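Onboarding guide, step 5: your first structure request.
Type a short instruction followed by the sequence, for example:

Predict the 3D structure of this protein.
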Amino acid sequence: MSAPASNRIDVESLMRIRSLELRARLILEGFLQGLHRSPYHGSSVEFSEYRAYSPGDDLRHLDWKLMARSDRLCIRKFEAETNLECRLLVDLSRSMRFGSGDYTKAEYAATLAATFAWFLLGQGDAVGMMTFASHILDDLPPSRRKGQLQHILAGLVRESAPGETDVKKALDDYLPRARRRCLTVLVSDLLAPIEGLQTQFGYLARAGHDVVVYRILDPAELDFGFSRTARFEDLETGRILYLNPATAGPLYRQRFQEHDEALRALCRRHAIDFLPVRTDASFFDALYDLLRRRSGIHQKRKTRA
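The system replies with structure tokens like these:
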């Protein structure tokens, strides 16, 4: 299900804005305005953090204004009931520097992660971030303190790092840091061997983490829609290839589909949400998916209680 269509912002126009902070703010403001006017608000997605009053609840936490408007007795939820801990894992390797248009996968991924962080911090959640390439670049422990957003933004605007994508090593380094159950959001193109992800994904799932994977891909990587023989450079290894799309295209599409299907099967096996994202797609859909995920975690907590 897609996010409400109202207040969508043209992605190309948005990505021309140089300030990452301004891009994220515009996306979030448009998303929230559309959400409050959408039919999903207050139904399948509870955006307001309230629960019904029960005898014995502390009357200091009653929302008297809401009662005056609706004649309903509602309690503002305690922080322990409403707040999550989220860790963003963002791929800034050289493969993320590819872009067939005016911006790269890394710029799109950074914008998406910045918007996630802003949204979650605005909900009172503790947000941390780890950026990686062939090694860890930045590691910010989860916090909801003032200033955390600025630290996250600073880590996201750095240049893509040298070296090949090593999601396996990044997850190996992440696992000891994630002893507490949390929402783990991986943002990457995942152009890496599937074999290197099986153990790590399985460990996260067995440890009780809620894991969601946003796979960021450029449209050209999906359809290989090149028409003439051209020079291709591997951004991670520097290897140069001259390819005729007419002959190389079918094999590329076949291998890409096989890799994609194996990745989806791996995520299904470990109950990990896998969400492919094209760099020409609206940020709103990914944000709405994150909101549904956050609401679902709260619902599970209430059911366990």
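Each response can be followed by summary notes, for example: Confidence is low (pLDDT under 50) at residues 38-48.
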